[in-house]
Amino acid sequence: MTNTVSTTIFPRLSEAIRLREKGDNQRATQLLLAHLRERPDEPRGLAQLGFIAVQSGALGQAEHFLRRALARGENSLELRRTLASVYSQQERLHVAEAFTSRLISDEGDRQLRGLRANLLDRMGRHEEALAIQHDLVGENPQSIGAWIAYGHSLRAAGRVEDAMAAYRTAIAIDDGFGEAWWGLASIKRKVLTDGDIAAMEQALAIAVDERNIAPLHFALGRAFHDRGQFDKAFHHYEAGNRIRAESIGYDATELTGEVAEIEQLADRAFMERMSPVPNGTDQPVFIICLPRSGSTLLEQMLGSHPAIEPVGELPYIPAILRSFMEISTRRGPVSVPQAIASLSDEQAAMLGQDYLARARLHRKTDRPFFIDKLPQNWSNVLFIRRILPQARFIDIRRPAMDCCFSNFSLSFTTAHAASFALRDVGQTYVDYVRLMAHFDQVAPGMIHHVSYRALVDDQEATLRPALEYLGLEWDEAIRDFHTLDRVVRTPSSEQVRRPINRDGMEIWRPYAQWLDPLREVLGELADS
Hints:
Blueprint: H1 11-22, H2 25-38, H3 43-56, H4 59-71, H5 77-89, H6 93-107, H7 113-122, H8 126-139, H9 144-156, H10 160-173, H11 178-185, H12 194-206, H13 210-226, H14 230-248, H15 252-265, H16 268-273, E1 283-288, H17 295-302, E2 308-310, H18 316-328, H19 336-341, H20 345-360, E3 369-372, H21 381-387, E4 392-397, H22 400-408, H23 422-442, E5 447-451, H24 452-457, H25 459-469, H26 516-522
Parallel strand pairs: 1-3, 1-4, 2-3, 4-5
């Protein structure tokens, strides 16, 4: 059969498509399975199962069904674009980029150029991405999304004035588009005018889409913060976070439970049983911490050393772990620590090699070490140690109140869902400190710790021990870290292009009267 066959020939398939479009995926899946039992290779049924798998987050299954459908003649635009998106969500960037490029060049699907620019940027091919984004805003000057994406890339490249102009172009098209305002507000300068505040307040008064309302609140929070009107700023931060929290239903106890399980499972004997043999010759260094802890600053400093290459926040460890867990849980519930404990040496080596192969896409030098600074890898230390025995870990710890409030004041995505409530971000900090302490007890020396406060006060005295941990000596180039010419895709992209400063210290104090819920969760850590 091919995709030209009408679904009227297959009543179950027709009804399944109708149900999926209505959002009833459970009944649609039942009909599709019945349909495919009779016709195992029918491509439209396979494609529909793939679409449903994507919506449920089962990316491995989605890829399986979509590729089978494509091989058997289903070649719809929806299928091809969905498969490209699946590759992207799996963080298989080279596969996604090659597939997307082929669709653009061979089949003229030019709407995928935005995705290709995004993929190139995530692969570290920033100039190519910027060139495509420049063309896209030229061809589609009324596309708000194109201007915002262009602004993000310009900002990461250090072209802040151009980024601001891109955000303002998006705002001129639609001054109620929250993400454009937040893009502008998140720049570490006092860029928002009184007129901007009036425009945002007017937009907020008539906004109905939460995707605009939340970032408008965060942008207004930043504007009032810059004016010292902290009561108004906190009101807006709280409102923006409340909207985000209500939309996802984050449960902080799940992470707490996972940390407790690691404490039970990974005792000293367990850690000593893990293979010490390096998996390949590449030497990754993972900077681990909570977001807003100084990891970008630390990476910029260490990356100024001639033996260390900074490659940014690589998404591959969480992506590989997610795929591994999808397979591990097919026969029933399995926790992350249980799945890690069940890994064979061969499986662990394959997963580690997968990570290293993906990381090489970002390497531009042959320096012995490279840094992956994805903050949330603090909770993945056990998995990383299992698949990459040679991994080094440097934990940078910012004082709890500063770190947690900084998270609360930023418009994060669901990747940092704990930041949406003061109690949740405080509990995450507690769990993080607890896990680091556990590894110090059962695997002494595996993780090197850096104090953000000490780093700001005396970078050489703080970094010499970190370099010794890596087997390296101090290099004077580190002092000029702010001159390092590289793309920085974090909220600290402007800060690390300036000499060392204390701007990030004690930022919570003007908000102290509203932070009792955070203090209660942190306990003694609040005074750390």
